[in-house]
Design goal:
123 residues; mainly beta; seven-stranded mixed sheet; 11 strands; 0% helix
């Protein structure tokens, strides 16, 4: 079992930055792919970024490439999402997800989810 707790959301002006954190329980954090997803009101949950087990490979949605960076500290059981040049369309609840065998963009494949953290970008 893995428990995930996100933090770091908030209100920021367009062009600003935020860093989200996701702390995971368990002793095998490094064996899980860690992903970030987001869901805006009235929309489906969408893929943002994912980091493979050891963090050696990362993948991003086209909408955030060049602006967002996913990283992980396996010693701290934490994955981060650095978000720069934020836009109003980035407004959503951001979720952290973990899976021991899948590292793609399909949210239905992830076994574990956090409760989400709200990010609001004002224009």
């Amino acid at each position: 079992q893995v428990q995930l707790v996100e933090s770091g959301g908030g209100l920021v002006q367009a062009g600003g930055s935020l860093r989200l954190s996701c702390a995971a329980s368990g002793r095998t954090f490094s064996s899980y792919a860690m992903g970030w997803f987001r869901q805006a009101p009235g929309k489906e949950r969408e893929f943002v970024a994912v980091s493979k087990w050891g963090g050696e490979r990362t993948y991003y949605a086209d909408s955030v490439k060049g602006r967002f960076t996913i990283s992980r500290d396996n010693a701290k059981n934490t994955v981060y999402l650095q978000m720069n040049s934020l836009k109003p369309e980035d407004t959503a609840v951001y979720y952290c997800a973990a899976d021991p065998s899948y590292y793609g963009g399909n949210s239905r494949q992830y076994d574990y989810w956090g409760q989400g953290t709200q990010v609001t970008v004002s224009s």
